[in-house]
Each structure stands twice: as structure tokens, then as C-alpha cells.
Amino acid sequence: MEVVDIDARAAKLGIDWSQDDQSEFDTGFGNIIVVDHLPVVPKEKFEKLEGVVKKIYNQLGVIKENGLWMPVDPDTKMTLGYCFIEFNTPQEAQNAKEKSHGYKLDKSHIFAVNMFDDFDRLMNVKEEWEPPQARPYVPGENLQKWLTDEKARDQLVIRSGPDTEVFWNDTRQKAPEPVHKRPYWTESYVQWSPLGTYLVTLHKQGAAVWGGADTFTRLMRYQHSMVKLVDFSPGEKYLVTYHSQEPSNPRDASKVEIKVFDVRTGRMMRDFKGSADEFSIGGPGGVAGASWPVFRWAGGKDDKYFAKLSKNTISVYETETFSLIDKKSMKVDNVVDICWSPTDSILSLFVPEQGGGNQPAKVALVQIPSKVELRQKNLFSVSDCKMYWQSSGEYLAVKVDRYTKTKKSTYSGFELFRIKERDIPIEVLELDNKNDKIIAFAWEPKGHRFAVIHGDQPRPDVSFYSMKTAQNTGRVSKLATLKAKQANALFWSPTGKYIILAGLKGFNGQLEFFNVDELETMATAEHFMATDIEWDPTGRYVATAVTSVHEMENGFTIWSFNGIMLYRILKDHFFQLAWRPRPPSFLTAEKEEEIAKTLKKYSKKYEAEDQDVSLLLSEQDREKRKALKEEWEKWVMQWKSLHEEEKLVRQNLRDGEVSDVEEDEYEAKEVEFEDLIDVTEEIVQES
Description:
Layout: H1 6-12, H2 23-26, E1 32-36, H3 46-57, E2 63-69, E3 82-87, H4 90-100, E4 104-106, E5 109-110, E6 112-115, H5 118-123, E7 155-160, E8 163-170, E9 175-183, E10 190-192, E11 199-202, E12 206-211, E13 217-223, E14 229-232, E15 238-245, E16 255-262, E17 268-275, E18 285-287, E19 290-292, E20 295-297, E21 305-310, E22 313-318, E23 323-324, E24 330-331, E25 337-340, E26 346-351, E27 361-367, E28 372-379, E29 382-389, E30 395-403, E31 410-418, E32 426-430, E33 438-443, E34 449-454, E35 461-466, E36 477-482, E37 489-492, E38 498-503, E39 510-515, E40 520-526, E41 532-535, E42 541-546, E43 555-560, E44 565-570, E45 574-579, H6 589-597, H7 599-645, H8 647-653
GO cellular component, one term: eukaryotic 48S preinitiation complex
Subunit structure: Component of the eukaryotic translation initiation factor 3 (eIF-3) complex.
Family: Belongs to the eIF-3 subunit B family.
């Protein structure tokens, strides 16, 4: 790094940076950079040079009002070839330094940029080199330690009232075990990272990530004032933060600022600014008119690509330089939705009909970074499309809503893409009754099956299909249809095989636990007014919750995979529940298969532990009942003693009459009596 001779130039300006004034440095100037190797110009060209510098650095951050200072030699009235720039935040200053150091203004002027705070350190460098002292290694906390829990439990986080709490899900004890609790930990909501390493909290100043098994120490902060939303990349390398500001004029669009940070270092890699209209195309939902998440990350854990959908444009960025691939966006007229494969750098996109139906709608698959179109399907008379990727990236289901010939109504069907097969064949699936409305669709995780809720409320049908059966490996087959179910949502277990057919909202929390392998119902239950359902990452347990959208029965219930209620926790003003995700297993498929075959060998140990816990709980129950009995007997003895002490007082109050009657003075008698309840007269005819 080139060092600017700040000492000599300070002397020219009459600034004395002696030891007496060293306290000036202690206050910190982390949001100021020094830009050297600027052209030396006379007073007439000062404003032009200042405008050029502002134009360059306004793209890299927000410069404070009067935040650019370009010193002038008082004798010659010429600039001194450097300037100071003050940004709103230290992160913006650091980003500007990194992005503009070495910037070539022209052949003779290449910027040398340093942080203002660096000069204190650089001016104290000794003349002679000394080898650095070796620092003792201090290991940090193992952020994956929670995965080594001896009881193989999972963690979950909840928010209720002002408190945020992390628990172990301890089903043996029939209760959650507290791990960490903190009031006002976040000012909005909390969110786990995709692999469960971090917990992110939101604050007025920005976002923060926390980690660990039980201590939850703060690992990093990310400066973004009034942040509203956050999103992680799949491999947890990057954090995207979102802020929108309402305009003073209601006719104007909201202003949006999005930042992308390196999770570990806290460094801002890039920011994006614009109106909410620029970020409002596509996406499942959002705030202030902008869709969220704005950026869609490519599948896999390398976090190599992310894409943004704009009007007639798909912008795909690579994270090595955080710039557009090939330095240009993809032009796709009228594109309204994009979706990445969960495992590969394949982007699916949907373009609706154009020209009044003269140009058909289409779904296309594009390989990134080559931007080569792998497959395209034209679709006619289309009202809408929705794309669903299977979690292993083997299949893509496209739900197509089409107009009837009269254009007065619509019907639905599916286009099924087999991504891993040669030439990506496409299969069309129509329901037995193609006029049935499709209410919900869900792929089996890591499997070949999917479920569809279709028909009319309040009792639609649920059908199960398979992309691969023993009899037919290349065509979709229907497995079964369950008639008249009170369900409007589907929740597959993360390991497949089991699914919950749920009736939320208007169905008041109806639950049916279904085994798809056996095509049989394991249990039916109800969690009245349930608003949320979420499986734990292992597929052993499932949580249902009633959040504060309802005023009553706030809290959550934990169930086994087969529908047995294990315990229920009530919490006033209950806002959120989220299981801590687990990273993928390091075991190979062969090793997992071997463990499954020898499961009985491993299960003996855990069965013995379960028996010990059961005996312990029984003993605890006995001790509890014994303690209650002893407490009752003690209370009775106290009142008997008090009653005896007050005997004379009662006798005096009754003028010497003894009012207490001993038990042996009672005479017990048994009295029998008969009561006629009813009389029925019946005529029996002789045969």
C-alpha cells in the first residue's frame, strides 16, 4: 500500500500532529479516506476537479454534506494533489478505499487511497524491521458444537413478548430445556442461517449474527440503518440486507437500498440502490412494493451466482467480483418470474403470452454462466404459471393455469421436466377432473413423489403421484387419491415418507399424519387456530403454533412424526418459532444404508437410555406426589393444633357451653328407602 506523506502536508496546512494532540486520533476517523495522486490544478479548475471526484465516489457510498475537502496551498493557490472524503459509515469508507485504490483517472494520475485512521499506525512504524511476535493461539468457540449433543436433540428459537429464547427440544422430559434467553434481543424478528451456524437479529443500526451451542456470542455486525429484511446465501458466505424509505411525496416510489456483506468479515461487497419499482417484479412477497428476496441465489453451497429480476431483464452476478456475468444482463422481453435449481446453476424462467395471445407463453431453462438455453416449452392460452423445483434438482414441475375456449374460466395442469435425463423430456399431467382447482402442491424432499390438493372447499381431494415406479420408471403415475379431506396445506417430512395434511385458517388447525409408503393415516388431531407448522430438520418431530394473529391460545405444541402430542407450551404474545437447521450429513449414502440395516444394534443403547429416563420420570412423579401428601398432612396438623388451642376461647364465648363434639359421640345409622321412578304397562298377546 502506498503511503501518503501526510506529515509534510499537514505542516503546510498549519496542523500540528505532535504527541500532545495525539488524543485526536483516539476519537477515530474510520469513515474518512484520503485520496492521493489527484491532479494539481489552479483555482479556476478547482470546482471541475471536485465534481469529477464526487461523481466517482458517490457511486461507492454516501458522502456527508461538506464531506469532501481538497486542501489548497495558501501561497500558490494550487491544490495539493490529495483530498479527504467523509462517508456516512466506516463500512462505506472501507468499501470506497478497496474499490478505488489503483483507479486510473488518466495516464498520469492513478489513485492511492488510504484510511485516515491508518496514518497514526503508519507514522509510528520503526525504521528497522523487527520480526512480529508470535501470538499464542486462542481457539474460538466451535460453532458446530450444538450438533454433538449426546441426546441428539435439536434446537428451536421462539419470540414472545419482549423475549427471544433458544431451547433444546427434549421430548424425553416432555418439555423444552432452556439454552439462552435475552429480552429485546432483536427489534424485529430473528432468522437462522441455512446451515444453522448463525442466528441473525435486526436492529436500528443494522444486523448482527450470533453463534454457539449455548452462549450465543455476537460474531459480527453489519451496518445498515433501519434494516427491515435479511437473507443468507445457501452456503452462508453472504448476508443480504434490505431497507426501504417512504417518500415525502406519496406519488413517488419508496427508495430501496440493498447491501451484500461477507458474513465472516463483515465487509460490504456491494450495494444496490433505486426505487421500489425497480425491485418489485416477481418474487413471493415483500415490503413497500419490493419483492423479497430481491436476489435469488443459485443452488449449491459455493454461493457463486445470484440473480435479480427487472423489467425485461435478468441480471446474473458472480461473487468473485460482484459484477455482471459478461458485464451485461440477459434481455428477456416480458419475463415475470425466475427460479434457480436447488443444486445446479440452472435458471428457470417464465414469460407470459404477448400480443394478445399471438406469441405464446414459455418456460425456459438456462445454464449459467454460459447463458445457453437447455430447454424451452411454449404454452398456449395461459393465465398464469408457477414453478416448483424438487429439492434434489431432478425435476421441475410447472403448474399451468389455462383459459377455457370461452375465456370465462380456467383449468390447471402440470408440465413435468426431467432435468437429469437426456434432452430433458417434458411430460404433461392433467388431473382426473381437469376443472378441479389446485389448492396446494408439494414435492417429497429428496424423493420422486409429489402431493396435490385439488377440488372444491371445504372438503377437497388429496392425490399422490410418483415420477418413478417399479412398473414404470419413465412416466408419472398416480398412487392414490384421498377423498374429501379438511386440508388446504401440505407439509412433507424433511426425510420424505410422511406428510401432514393440514387445515389452517378456515379449517381451525385440522391435522392428519399420513404415511405415504403405506398409504395409510397414522393419526388425526387438531391444534385449534394453528397458524404455523414446521418439521424439525431430522423429521422426527413437528411443531404447530398459534401466533399473536389470534388473541387466544398463543403458544406451540410438539408432536411426534406419527401424530402423538408430546407437550404443549403456552406463551402470551407469541410471534415466532423456527427450528435450527442442520447441515447436510457427511455420511455417504452407502454408510447411511449400512446404519439403517444395523439400526437395532444402535437402538439398544438409546432404548436403555429411554427406559432410564422413564424410570426417573416415574420416580420424580412419586416423589412429587409424596411431597404433596406430606404438605397436606402438615397443613391438617397445623389446623388441628390451632383448633385445640382455641377450644377454651370458643367455650367462653358460649358461656361455658362445650360446643365441640368428639367423633365417638356421633351415632351412625343406615337408612334404606325405596323410590318409585316409573311404571310401564305392557300388554302381551297370547300366541
